[in-house]
């Protein structure tokens, strides 16, 4: 059953869960800080325990942010939740959430992916994570699919891949299309559970994404950050479907705004709309051209290894590390 709540409401509920989890983690993190005596904490977007513990211990915190939200919007939609989390650990209110990214804030995406409103004074833009070097070897059967027909890669991530009926709808569409298709369904789903497939559709639990993308013309995916950055950094257009994660809807909106694919939102997903979207992305060059521009933008950003120097600087100086305007 699809979640009928509005995206903002879903995001608020998810944020509340992450904040509650962070509050519960704070005592253990404070013990670790006392034992290890670090000079700096590093966290990802939803690891709020480090935000709270950093405030309690006056430790600088560097944030790798895969789903940034403009501070004013976050304060307006969930300021009460963050205020409750701060109160639960004995911190004073921070109604404008100025402490959230005040030390060092990393974004990893092409220019134009994130709204300028999320670019604070300590924001630095970098390339997305590269795949591991050992993940580029393609299976023999995958190399054999290069016969001129388009290759479609299907992935719904590792959490929303159990959305009822969605894989089945995708396979029904691909069954009659003149393409090769690979779907990775995750370790908890038996590929055989989908029944017998025609020879041009292959279902696997896992194949290294980098190996697949080297052969791919279009990706069908949910709108998770990792699922999108893989194809877009290679200039591969997408058909993407936001499924419920807090960042899915804004990520899908960015795909549409950049012209790098077609978005099928809730209420728009059907076999007919998916077939139409797939054919449009395959046949109209504007989507691949837009995806190529996104890839060029990613390539123009500093590599992630340059983050190390900024983290070291933060640890030594204990002062906010100001960013540069993206370009």
From TrEMBL:
Residues of the Erythromycin biosynthesis protein CIII-like C-terminal domain: 194-312
Single GO MF annotation: UDP-glycosyltransferase activity
Domain of life: Bacteria
Chain segments annotated as coiled-coil in the UniProt record: none
Database matches in SUPFAM superfamilies: UDP-Glycosyltransferase/glycogen phosphorylase (SSF53756)
InterPro entries: EryCIII-like_C, UDP-glycosyltransferase, UDP_glucos_trans
Pfam families in UniProt: EryCIII-like_C (PF06722)
Keywords, ordered alphabetically: Glycosyltransferase, Transferase
Protein name: Glycosyltransferase, MGT family
Naturally occurring in which organism (per UniProt): Micromonospora yangpuensis
């Amino acid at each position: 059953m699809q979640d009928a709540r509005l995206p903002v409401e879903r995001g608020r509920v998810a944020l509340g869960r992450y904040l509650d989890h962070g509050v519960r983690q704070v005592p253990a993190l404070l013990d670790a800080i006392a034992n290890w005596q670090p000079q700096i904490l590093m966290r990802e977007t939803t690891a709020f325990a480090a935000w709270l513990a950093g405030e309690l211990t006056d430790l600088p915190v560097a944030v790798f942010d895969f789903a940034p939200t403009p501070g004013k919007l976050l304060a307006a939609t969930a300021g009460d939740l963050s205020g409750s989390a701060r109160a639960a650990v004995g911190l004073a209110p921070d109604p404008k959430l100025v402490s959230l990214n005040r030390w060092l804030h990393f974004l990893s995406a092409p220019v134009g992916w994130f709204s300028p409103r999320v670019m604070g004074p300590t924001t630095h833009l970098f390339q997305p994570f590269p795949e591991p070097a050992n993940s580029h070897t393609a299976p023999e059967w995958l190399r054999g699919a290069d016969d001129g027909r388009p290759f479609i890669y299907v992935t719904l991530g590792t959490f929303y891949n159990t959305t009822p009926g969605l894989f089945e709808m995708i396979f029904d569409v691909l069954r009659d299309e003149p393409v090769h298709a690979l779907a990775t369904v995750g370790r908890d789903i038996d590929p055989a559970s989908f029944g017998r497939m025609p020879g041009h559709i292959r279902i696997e639990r896992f194949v290294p994404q980098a190996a697949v993308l080297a052969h791919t013309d279009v990706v069908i995916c949910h709108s998770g950050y990792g699922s999108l950055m893989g194809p877009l950094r290679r200039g591969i257009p997408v058909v993407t479907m936001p499924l419920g994660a807090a960042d899915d809807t804004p990520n899908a909106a960015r795909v549409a705004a950049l012209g790098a694919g077609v978005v099928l939102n809730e209420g728009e997903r059907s076999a007919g709309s998916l077939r139409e979207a797939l054919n449009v992305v395959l046949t109209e060059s504007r989507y691949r051209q837009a995806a190529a521009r996104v890839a060029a933008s990613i390539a123009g950003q500093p590599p992630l290894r340059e983050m190390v120097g900024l983290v070291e600087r933060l640890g030594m100086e204990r002062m906010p590390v100001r960013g540069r305007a993206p370009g």
